Amino acid sequence: SFFLRSVPYNIYPLLTLIMVIYTILSERNYGPMARSIAYAKETGKLYNEDYGAAPGEIEDVGTDKADKAKSLDMLFPLIVLILSSVILFPVTTYLGAIGSDGIETYGQAVRSMNLGDAFNNTDASMALFYAIIFTLSITSVYYLARKLFTLREAGDALTEGIKSMVPALIILTMAWTIGTVITSSPEDGGLGLASYLSDVVVGGGFPIALVPMIAFVLSALIAFSTGTSWGTFAIMIPIVMPIAVGLAQAKGLDGSGVLNAAMISVSAVLGGSVFGDHASPISDTTILSSTGAGCPHLEHVATQMPYAVTIAVISAIAFIFGGIFLNIFAAWIVALLLFAGAMYLMPKYFK
Question: Is 169 a domain residue?
Answer without folding.
Answer: no
